[in-house]
Amino acid sequence: MDIEGATSAGSTEHDSSRPASAEAFKDAFRRHPGGVSVVTADAGAGPVALTLTSVASVSADPPLLVFSVSEMSSATPTILAADTIVVHLIDSSGLGIAQLAATHGADRFAGVPWERLPTGEPRYSSVPNWLRCRIIERVPAGGSAVIVALVLETGDPGEVVADPLTYHNRTWHRLGTHSAL
């Protein structure tokens, strides 16, 4: 099925259905919680960072992940031009970094500890769970790009365990024992 056919076909079998539109699509995903990650990169003109909820594991062997970036983000051109990136898997202790990397126009490295890995990528020092990756595929998709990346190295979070951080309906949420079913 082509993309045009997928977006124009609407089901009328359910009273609660509505035609697919950009607003309906965004509304559906606002109601779907996502884990929070921050991607950092530097393609030679300085470091950038971007908060994402689209990171997903694809394969353990080889270790692959995927995420998408919007062409509306100022960080996207640098991420697309970079050969390697760092994906920070953010827990609740990293909320400030997630908020900073999501703030339009902010210096996303101001006032937070960060370093360059020996291979040159920028990394937030306070985030123990990170993945250094090589981008192996860039796929245009609407007003975004889907990135496939091979994990080259991982941080060692050791015994550091903080509650997971999610983003749901435009709000940050901490998962914990209170939210277990």
Q: Any chance you could write out the topology, listing elements then pairs?
A:
Elements: H1 3-8, H2 22-30, E1 34-35, E2 37-41, E3 48-52, E4 56-60, E5 63-70, H3 76-81, E6 84-89, H4 95-101, E7 114-116, E8 122-124, E9 130-141, E10 144-154, E11 165-168, E12 171-174
Please describe what this structure looks like.
The chain is an alpha+beta fold. It has a single domain (33-179), classed as Electron Transport, Fmn-binding Protein, Chain A (Pnp Oxidase, Chain A, Roll). It is built from four helices and twelve strands; from the N terminus they run ααβββββαβαββββββ. The protein has helices at residues 3-8, 22-30, 76-81, 95-101; strands at residues 34-35, 37-41, 48-52, 56-60, 63-70, 84-89, 114-116, 122-124, 130-141, 144-154, 165-168, 171-174. Strands 3-2-6-9-10-5-4 form a seven-stranded antiparallel sheet. Strands 1-11-12 form a three-stranded antiparallel sheet, with no helix packed on it. A two-stranded antiparallel ribbon has the order 7-8. The protein is globular, with a radius of gyration of 18 Å. The model is unreliable at 7-12 (pLDDT under 50).
A few lines on this structure:
With 181 residues, the chain is α+β, with helices and mostly antiparallel strands. The protein contains four helices and twelve strands, in the order ααβββββαβαββββββ.
